[in-house]
User: Fold these one by one.
Assistant:
Number 1:
Amino acid sequence: MASALVDVRGVSKTYHRDKVEIPVLRNLSLEVPEAEFVALMGPSGSGKTTLLNLIAGIDRPDSGQVLVAGTELGTLGESDLAKWRSRHIGFIFQFYNLLPVLTAFGNVELPLLLTKLSGSERRKHVETALDLVGLKDRMHHYPRQLSGGQEQRVAIARAIVTDPTVIVADEPTGDLDRQSAAEILDLLAQLNQTYKKTIVMVTHDPRAAERAHVQRHLEKGELA
Amino acid sequence: MRVFGLIFKNTLRHKLRTALTILGIGVAILLLGLVRTFIAAWYSGVSQSAPDRLVTTSKINITFTLPISQKEKIERIPGVKQVAHGTWFGGIYKDPKNFFAQFAFEDAGMFHLYPEFIVDSATMHAWETQRNAVIVGVETMTRFGWKVGDIVRLQGTIYPGDWDFLIVGTYTGRTETTDDSQFIFRWDYIEQRMEKEWPARAGEVGWWVVKIDDPARSAAISKAIDAEFDNSADETKTQTEAAFQQSFVAMSGTIIISLQVISILVVGIILLVAANTMAMTARERLSEYAVMKTLGFSGGHLFGLIGGESMLIAFLGGVVGIAAIFPVAHGISIALRAFFPVFPIEAKTLIIAAFSALGCGIVAAVFPVTRAVRMRIVDGLRRVG
C-alpha cells in the first residue's frame, strides 16, 4: 500500500443542539492512499459527511488530527485553511451548489479567481475542465438551462479545475436519476483511473460505492 | 469574469427588489438634499453677508424705527466709512399672496454699499431723478410680467394708502445666490407723503447700514455706535450683517432644528432600506457563501462581494437621488420664490448626500458581512451526515 495521502488519526466530533450533545465521530482513524477511490457508506447520522468535512478542512475535530498531503489541518488558521482548501481540495456537493448568476464557464472559473492565473490562462483551464466532463459546448449556459446531471458535471469541472490533491464528493449522485448517476460515476472513475486523482466519496448507494476501490462503513461515528 | 462582475450579476439577480431599493434610497437622498437646501435657503442671507457691513436697528426690536438725525452721529464715529438707511415697506400688490420684499433706500449710496446688486448707470440716473422710481429685481419682474415704464400700485400696510411706483429699470445679482427679487425705491417718496399726512412719522428710518474700514474692528465700532445713543429715546443695537441675518434665522430656530432632525432621520431611512435589502440578500445566499468559502474564498472576499453589492446599490440610489435634486429643487424654488428668493443647492449638500448614500451602503453591509464571515461552512451548507 502506498503512503497515506489522507491520514485521519483518532478524531472525535460532537455537535451541540441547545443543551443536547450529539456525538458524531468517536476516536475514528482512516488512511486513504494517494490515487485511491474510497467510498464512505453508512446510515444517516453515522458521521460520514462530518468525516468528509474534516478531510476537506471545512470543519474541525474536537480531538484528533487530520493530515492531508502532510499538512496537519489543525495547525492552520481560518485564512490559511481557506488558502489550503483552494489549492488541495475539490469539493463536489450533492445538490451541485452552482452559483445561479454565473454560466457554466463562470462557475468553473470561480476557484481560479483565487489564483494568479491570467484571464487567458484561466480560460484555457476552464475549457479543458469542461471538455473533460463533456460540456464544453454548454459553457455559456446558466445552471437553470442545464439538467441535473449536467449541473453535477459542471460542479465536477469546478472541483478539478485547480487540479486539487484530493476530490471529496458528498453523495454526488444523490439527486440524480439512474442514467445521470451512472455518467457521474463513470466520470469520477475516469478521473481516478486516468488522472490518478484521489477521491473520497460519501454515498448511500451501493451501486455507487461499487465503483470505488475501497468501501468503508460507518456506524454511530465509528468505522465498522 | 472578475469579482466585480460577480457583484454586478448579484446586484441584478432580483431586478425588481434592487430597483425598488435604488428608488427608495434615491427618494431618501432627494429628501435629504431638499431638506439641506431648505436649510441653506434659510441661511442664504447669512452666507451672503459682507464682513465690512454693520446693521444698526432699534434696541427694542427691528419693527421700531430710528430717527434720521442719527446719521451724522454715526458718520462721525472712527472707523465708519459710509452710512445709509433702509426701510421695510410691506405693501401689497393686488393680493397678499403676491409677496415680495420692498425696501425704501436713502439714495444711490445704498447701492454702493451693496455691490452685489448690479444696476446700470442709465437706470441709476433715472432712479435718482424720479421720486417714485423703483428698481426691481429680474426675478420679480419676470414673476409678474412687468416691464420698464410700468406703473405698479402697492397698497400700503405700514404706510397707509395706495402708492404708485414707476419701474425705471432692473437689477441683477452678481452671483447666482444673490437675491434678485427685491423692489427698491426712494425713501424720500414715502417721507414726502408722511410729512404731509402723518407728520409724527416723518424722519423715521428702518435701520442703518454702516460700512466700516476694518472688519476686525466691527465689535468695537458696533459698541461705539450703540454707546452714542445710550440713554436716548432711540437706543440702538448694532451688529455685523451676518449676525443681523442670523437673528432672523434664529427666529425660525425650531423649524431649522426640526429640519436637521428630519435630515438625520432620512439618513436613518436610507440605512434601513439598504440594510433590509442586504440582510435579505445575505440570508438567501448563505449556502452560496458557504460554497465559496469551501472553494477557498476568505472573509475578505465575502466582505468585498457583499459590501460591493451594498455599495453599488447605495451608489446607484445616490446617483438617482442627487440627479433628482436639481429639477425638484428648481420646481420648489419657482413655487416658493416669494419666501425663498435664493434656493441654493450647495456643493456641501451634494457631498453630504453622496457620503450619506455611500456611508449607508457600507453600514448596511456590516451585519450581513459579519454573519457570512462568522458562519461555519457546515452550517451554511445545512447538511450534517
Number 2:
Amino acid sequence: MKPFKKVDSIITPLDKVNVDTDQIVPKQFLKLVQKSGFGKFLFYNWRFDEQENKKTDFILNNSNYDGSKILVTGDNFGCGSSREHAVWALQDYGFSVIIAPSFADIFFSNCFKNGILPISLDQKTVEKLQQEKDTIEVDLVKQIIKTSSEEIFFEMDSHKKKILLEGLDDIAQTLQFKDKIAEFEKKSKIPSVL
Amino acid sequence: MSKTLFEKIWDQHVVVEKTTGPSLIYVDRHLVHEVTSPQAFDGLRMNNRKVRRPDLTIATMDHNVPTNDRSLPILDQTSAVQIQTLEKNCRDFGIKLFDIHSPNQGIVHVIGPQLGITLPGSTIVCGDSHTSTHGAFGALAFGIGTSEVEHVLASQTLWLEKPKPFEIRVEGKRKNSHAVTAKDIILSIIKNIGTAGGNGSVIEYRGEGIEDLSMEQRMTICNMSIEAGARAGLIAPDENTYEYLRGRKYTPKNYEQLVEYWAENLKTDSDAKFEKNYTLHIDNISPQVSWGTNPGMTCDVTENIPTPEEYSKGDPNQKKGAENALQYMDLKGGTPITEIKIDRVFIGSCTNARLEDLIEASKVIKGQKISPNVRAMIVPGSQMVKKQAEEMGLDKIFINANFDWREAGCSMCLGMNPDILSPGERCASTSNRNFEGRQGTGGRTHLVSPVMAAAAAIKGHFVDVRDLDLN
C-alpha cells in the first residue's frame, strides 16, 4: 500500500446523507475478480443514464471538479453492504480523502486497508468545507486541514494513522504474533468445523 | 466485574491487547462466498501465504448464482468466471465448498445455522454485512471487507476496535403473531433509532418479545442489525438455541459438554452496564412497509406515507433525503400505504427465506391466486429449505397460486444474478435493503414481512394482513 502523507486538491461536494455502498458501486460491477479498474463504475447510476450518457446534473460530471482528490459529503457515508469494491472505486477514480460528519463502520475500516483517509468533522464544518472553492491541504502528519481562511484540526486514531503514513502491510504485522495465535488455539473451546 | 454477553465473548477471543488502539481477535468460523473473496485469495498467492485454518473456513456460492434450472450452464460469463474462481481457490487452498450442485448450497447465513457451523459464544466473520444474522445464536458475528477476508484467511484473526454494547429491549406480546412478525419488530426498531443509530455498537436484543421468538425469527432480527448501522446483533442463547443446533451435520461431537458451559457463561450479568439503551413495546405494533430508499424510511401499513416535513422533524438534510427518496420511489407524502400498487413480489433473502417464512407465507396464499398484474417469485434460502418445503407440499401451494418456485440463492435481494426488477417496477420484497437500484437499476423496493408480501401478491397492492382471514 502506498503511504499517505499529504494531499492538496480542490474538494468535490456531494451533498447527500446516508450514501450507501450500493450507490458508490452498483452490484452489476461486483462480478470482477480483480481489484483494479472500478473507478469507471463509481456512482454509476448517478453519473450515467440508461444509455450510458453522462447525467449533466451530477457533480462528478461537472468539469470544474476534474482531478479533485477530496470528497466532502453527508452523514453516515458508506452504509449498507460491506463491499470493499466501494473503496476501490473511490480510490481508482482518484479520491484519497473522504470528509463527512460520520461513516458506516465497515466502510470506515475498509478505507484504511486501501490508503484512503476518512475524516469525521462536525456537521457545520463539513457544510462550510462544501462551499470551499480553492485548493485545500490535508496533512495527516499534523492532522490538519488548511483552507484559504483557516486551519481545522481532525481526530485520528494513532494506530490507524500509522498504517496510512507507513503504508503498512497489515498481515505481515499480524503474522509477527503467530506464536500468540498458536497459543490461543491450544486453549480454544470452539472445535473445528470438519 | 460485571460484563455484558458481548464483552464476555470479546474477552474470550482476545489474542493480543494493547493499551490503546485495536485488539487482535481470534475468528472461530470464517464463511466465504464468491463475490468478496477472489481478490483476497489473489493477495495470498502474491505473498506466497497459506490459509491458516482451512478447517475453520467454509465456502458456498450464493450471490450471483442463477435460481433457475441448475443443469443449465451459467449464461452470464462474468458470473461464471467468479464461480469458477471460487471453485479453484477452494481447491488450491483446501477449503470445503458447497457448490451450486451441493444439497447444502444456499445463502451463507441460512446454511451456517442449518449445518450446525454457527455456534454460541463463537466469533464468526464473512465478507458480507448480513453476517450479523448468526448473532441470533449468541455468536459474535459481523461482516468484513475483502482485505479483512484476506487477513483472516492468512492469520485466523482480525484487528478490531472494541464496539460499544447497546441494549435493545423488546417488551410485551404481539396481538397477532402470525400477522405481526419479527420483520415488523426489526423494521420498527430501525425506524425509531435510525439507520446510523447502531453505528460503532454491538446490539444485544433482550426482553420477553425476543425470548418468545423462534430461532428463525431471531435470525431475522439479528440479520437487519446492520441496517441500523450496528456492527453485530446478539441474542443470548437459551434452550431454543441449543435444541435448534442439536444433531445437525456439523454440530460438534462434544456438543452437550459445550451446552453446559454455554448455559453457565453466555449471558449478560444482571448489573452489567450498556453504553446505550432503547426499548420497543410491541403490544400494539402493526405490520411495517418501507416507503423510501433506506430501511429507516418505514411506516405502519395503516398509515399514510409521511411528507418530507413530517419525516424530517426539522432536520434539513433528512428533509432533502426524504424528498429524493419520494422522487425516486415515484410516491407522494400523504398517500395511504394500502393504495400503493405493486408489479412484483420477492419472497427470499437471508432475512426471510427460511422454512418458517415459507410456511407463514403459504398460509396466506393457500387456495388463492396472485393478482394478474403481479409477477411473484419465491427463492428459498437454501437447497435444504427448498427440499423441506417441497416435502411439506408448500411448493404446490405457491405454484398453484402462480408464484415462480426457484432454486436457492441471494437472487433479487441484490440482483447480481438474472433476477432483477426492470426500471420503474415496484416490488414488495422480504429482503433487507430498499436502496436505489438495489433490486435492479430504477427498481423500487418496499421492505415487508413474508406474510405482507404474500397478501400484497394476492391483492396487487399493500394490504394489512391482519384484515385477511389467516385461519
